Amino acid sequence: LFRSVKGVEMMFDYEKGKDLVVNATKPLGESYYSVVARAFDEGWVDMYPSKGKRSGAYSNGSAYDVHPYVLMNYNDDFDGVTTLAHEFGHAMHSYLSNKNQAFANADYSIFVAEVASTVNERLLAKLILEETTEKNARLSLLMDILDGFRTTLFRQTQFAEFELKIHEAVENGQPLTADVLNAMYKDILYRYYGHNEGICNIEDLYAVEWAYIPHFYYNFYVYQYATSFTASVALGQDILNGTPGATDKYLKFLSSGSSKYPIDLLKETGVDMTSEVPFVKAMEAMNYYMDEVEKLLGK
Ligand SMILES: [Zn+2]
Predict the structure, then answer these.
(1) Distance from residue 16's CA to the centre of ligand 1 (Å)
(2) pLDDT digits (tens, 9 = 90+) for 241-276
């Protein structure tokens, strides 16, 4: 399942990564990208891995009166620059909400948080694709983008379906043993990956995958990756297509913290998550990338 294009290694050093993130966010206007540019000079980002530093990446916007801080472990590759764009989505969301909201409303919910980060990923993908002309490099990028659809939209929905099933089982008085969970998980995997249709072969061992996913021990978290991703594709398209008012509405959304319910905040940006429209737009975007791959492969 894991794609690779042989011989392609796209590298983006610190300067290139920084330029890409600043340039990718230019469609959001100067009030956004100029802050991103100055954040690098003002020490918001701890960029590189170092001895004793924790792994991963995150943005912390809780220093209300100061500015957000971004932790990175930048590796000069496509994943690194995507993560940088992602974390700056969170950082700018905090920056704008902290600036425009009273302390009590400045913090935002997860439902909207991952929208701000993944909109930046969409903007970055558009820019890098425009700059990349060599066939195999384009293929590699397109496969990375499509992998984002697979892992965020489909895989997280698969996780959410499993999560709902385990909660329903408990509600119905059914005990949850490892065997029960394995059977439930395997059934879902078979359906999502087309095991019975001969599309993918799911080995028995994969049925225990649930055990290592920490989110199943929280309460209904994972579906928000899929909803955020869907909303961000719809929003990203409106911004990149220059839909009148789209950028202003989006900046207002980023400045709103938790002053309204998440679903209402998104509605005001023109994305109604209670309708099928954002999902249809996300599928259109996915089909566009798949068409590009097929064009490159001459199919
Ligand atoms: Zn995030």
Answers:
(1) 22
(2) 999 999 999 999 999 999 999 999 999 999 999 999
